[in-house]
Amino acid sequence: MPYTRRVVDNTLDRMMLGLAAVSIDGAKGVGKTETAKQRAATVLDMSILERHAAVMANPDLIVQVPEPVFIDEWQLAETVWNRVKHAVDDDDSPGRFLLAGSATVRPESRIHTGAGRIVSLRLRPMALAERGICTPTVSLRELLDGHSDAISGISTMTVPDYVDEILASGFPGIRRLPGQDFRDDQLRSYLDLLLNREMQQAGINVRKPAALHAWMTAYAAATASAARYTTIRDAATSSDADPIARNTADAYRDHLTRVFILDPLPAWISPFNPLKRLSQAPKHHLADPALAANLMGVSKGALLIGEGQRISPHTGTWLGALFESLATLCVRVYADAARARTGHMIIADGRSSREVDIIVEGSDRRVVACEVKLSSSVSDNDVRHLNWLHQQIGDRLADKIVLNTGDIAYRRRDGVAVIPLALLGP
To answer: Which residue in 155, 197, 191 sits closest to 174, CA to CA?
Structure first.
């Protein structure tokens, strides 16, 4: 298959002009290998027994082959990380090494973190702008820069189309399969291998695989919410079973985060402003909303009629949560390209609270505040928290937007930009 250029490619091209070593990080199947191969003169794949044995027998091999050198699945031969670090110490010429891994450095590992030598770059599943289904007309980078006064564009995407994209997955190899049944089978296999084999290989003692699967399913049911981890743990325990021990659930969570399957959206911590009582709890998201949908076993038809049980029913429908997760994935991909941070905002104020689904903060501390609505129309009530935030932080708010399922992008009289999700791009 021809390579489909990703949003991250421009960032990687820039990084290789000035950095000696870049590690492309992300969950298995997001496309790290194909992205790195576009730039490599030599590929050393540590999942291939012969390559692994050669590098382990002679770590200096990485500096004896044509550069750029791409070391794939480096975590299967962790000592190679240290050898790259020492190679960069000796010669920090740009564009020498690319690494790709499906896990961060293990906390108990004695290998060097790579700080100051190896720079990490996150690759997530494909955002809508990368899937070739609609041409974006609104740039998140321009919104951050305050250069998007004219908001326009027409989307052909409908709610059923967004459901198709949620279920089809942003994993390149999965979404290319010919039909949703095959994609569902592949997603189920992906999860089974992760939970039943790779956790054990990583040293996580899974005495009760069914309990781990129940915890993952409960986490999926908490998608796009800030539910407490104790609530997730309780939801994973059936009425006739012993509760999952807290340290066991914590071990699940830590490892699944380390392998990029859990991708929680952190709370936005706002410096230099009067906001108080900001929640520090993350919003829960899996790497791809298709994984959450597969764990919950909800079909397209069921989603469209409102089926799907959530841990926090008051926070909206299950389809609404998955749509917000898709929107969060897209915004994070575009924000990374703009070198911006993402988070969410919840402020508890007595009996009420104020929430903004996604906050994008640029390097100049200006922010774009985003609400996500599974609706084609936007009311004054839908934007009240955006306008409240504008009153609180003033000019620090670069823009305020609602991402929805409508067909027309426009700006409301109160300044809020209404943007169909398919029309937002980097």
So the answer is: 191
Encode pLDDT of 319-367 as tens digits.
999 999 999 999 999 999 999 999 999 987 766 789 999 999 999 999 9
What does the alpha-carbon distance between residue 273 and residue 361 come to, in Å, rounded to a whole number? 14
Q: How far is CA 260 from the centre of its chain?
A: 8
CA distance 170 to 193: 19
Task: Kindly state the tokens that stand for 207.
Answer: 């005495």
Every domain of the chain and the residues it spans: 8-122, 128-425
Give dist(CA 125, CA 170) in Å, integer.
5
| Residues 327, 187 contacting (CB under 8 angstroms) | no
Whole-number pLDDT of residue 108 = 56
Amino acid at position 284, single letter: H
DSSP string covering 127-188: PGGGTTSS---EEHHHHHHT-------B----HHHHHHHHHH-S-HHHHTSSSHHHHHHHHH
Q: List Cα–Cα distances, 254 to 14, 243, 307, in angstroms.
A: 32, 19, 30
Q: Is the pTM of this model over 0.70?
A: yes
How does residue 279 score in pLDDT terms, banded at 50, 70 and 90? confident
Which pLDDT does position 274 carry in this prediction?
64
Element (H, E) at 282: none
| CA dist., res. 314 & res. 329, Å (int) | 23
> Which value, in Å, is the radius of gyration of the alpha carbons in the chain?
22
Residue type, 77: A
| Vertex 285: Cα angle to 169 and 381 (nearest 5) | 105
H or E stretch covering 33:
helix 32-37
DSSP per residue over 352-396, as a string? EEEEEEEEEE-TTS-EEEEEE-SSS---TGGGHHHHHHHHHHGGG
Helix then strand then coil, in percent of the chain rounded to 5, is: 40, 15, 40
Helix (H, G, I), strand (E, B) or coil at 25: strand
8-122 CATH, one of 3.40.50.300, 3.40.50.150, 3.40.190.10, 3.20.20.140: 3.40.50.300
CB 181 within 8 A of CB 304: no
CB-CB contact of 29 with 126 (8 Å):
no
Q: Which residue has the tokens 């049911």?
A: 221
